[in-house]
Amino acid sequence: MNPRPVQLGGRYPDDLETTLRVIRQFIEDGSQNPDVVLLARKITSGLPDRRTLTPEQQDLVEMYAVWDWVCRNIRYSRDNWAARYKRPGEILADCEAILKMKNGDCDEHVIITDALLLALGHPVEPRLGGVKIPQHIYSVASTCKGNTVCIDTTLKKKPFGTVPGTPDWVHWQIK
After folding, report:
1. According to the model, what pLDDT value does residue 121 have?
2. Packing angle between helix 34-44 and helix 16-32, nearest 10 degrees?
3. What's the CATH architecture for 6-173?
């Protein structure tokens, strides 16, 4: 599989539907990529003995491990791909490209985080947030009991599970 940055016609939120469709496809493709699956297993290989945890605790420990790995290994940069390829518009990267470049903006952070979580069997749902219009994308994962956890790897100085934004932010579920 070749890394494939994809240029989209407009910036957030001008071409939001296309952006979200490509993000969902990159997450799904990434979760089935053997390298991503292997990395997900490696990230979670040294976790506490499963016999000492409830199933929901196991889920949370795995989610935290993925969050921590992405925070430590994928550098946040604003629309890095658009600058790199000197093209206007939103440019998205697939998991292979993200792992090779080791950086990206919130879109790439969601793509790699959700692909890793999905590879481990955790249901994920990207969500949008912003003041009046979508300005940011982040992940929400579900535990085996249906409880949801916000996973935003761009908030490195905030604790795991922090919901991004300010009190005046609106959060949108993506259908």
Report:
1. 96
2. 70
3. Roll (3.10)
